[in-house]
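1st attempt posting a full record on here, be nice pls
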Amino acid sequence: METDRANPLYGCITADELRAIEFPPEQWLVNNIIYSEGFCFIYGAEGTGKSFITLSLAQAVASGTDWLGKFKVPQATKVMFIDKENPMSMLARRIKGLGVAGENISWVRCPEGLQLTDGKGNITPFAQALADKAEAEEIGLIVIDSFIDLITGNENVAGDTQVFFDTIRRLFPQKAILVLHHENKPAPGVFRSDAQRTRGSSNINAQTVTQFRLEAVAKSKTDLTLKQTKARDAQKLDKFMIRMIVEPDGEETKVTGFEYVGIVDEAEDPKKSAEVESMVEEMLADTTTVRRTEIIEMGKSRGMSQRTIIRAIKNMVEVGQITEDKVGRFVFYSWKDSVKSEDED
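the predicted structure (as C-alpha cells):
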C-alpha cells in the first residue's frame, strides 16, 4: 500500500510550533474536576449514584454555574450524553427533579443502535454523525454512560480498551470526555487501593486525565464521598462528601440537587482503617515481624495517607491485635503472641 507522505497526521510538530498554538485560555470545564480535553472517569459500585452526580455536573457545565457552589465553571459549554444505561423515561424524571433544562444539554435519541466501529476499525455512520454534530454545534463535553456499554471487545484486554480510547479521540478531538464506569467487586483476601478498584485493564487508568471514585456513605441514604484517584499535572483534591437533596414527590421522592458537605478526614474513616489492618495482616502472614517504616511505605504505595496508617496501627496495638517493640531506633510489630527475632536491624 502506498503511503500518503504529505498527510500532516504522519508528521511531527516542533517545540516552537507547539508553543505558537493558541489553545483556549480556560483549561478546565469544571475546575480540578473535568479538564477541557481528555478523559475523566467516575467509577464506583452499582447503585452509588454515578448517573445522578453526572447529571449534576453536566447541568453546571451547560449553565456555567459553579458545581456544588464550590468548583468553578469558567464558562457555559454544551454537553452531549451517550447514555446506553438509562431508559428515556427515567432520564425525564431525573432531569425534571434536578431542574435540568435548555438546549445546552442533549441526549442521543437511540443510543442502543450505536457502535463506534464496524469491527474492522472503520468508524460507523452513526458514530460519525455524532462526531459531526459535536463539531457543528461546538459541544465541549461528551458524557458516556457507561464504558462497558460502548467498548467493543473485552474491558480487561489492554488492546480492546485502547481501541475505545483511540476511536473516541478520533471522533471527538480536543473535547472533554466524561465516562462512567464500574469498580471491581470486593474479593476475600484481596486488597485494592482506591485507584486499583477501577474494573478492567490497567490501561484505563493510564489514559485518563482525572479520575474519581464515588462511594456511598455507610448507613446513609443521601451522603456520598468523591475521592480523586488521579490528577495529571495537578495536585489531587482532598476526598470530600456530597449530600443528595431529596424532596417528597407524591407518594415517592425525587432528587432535586446536591450540596457540598466538606472534606473527609480519611484517618477517621473506618473503611480506611480496615484496609490498613488487612494490609498489616497480609504483611505479617509471611513473616513474624514487620518494621513500621515498611508498613508506611507499603500503605503509601497503595494510596493510603501516613496519618491513616499510623492511627490504624496504634488502634491495632491498643486493642491487642498486634504488639509493638523497639530495637534501637526501629519500631517493629508482630502478632500478640509471636516472638520477634533480635537479629533484625
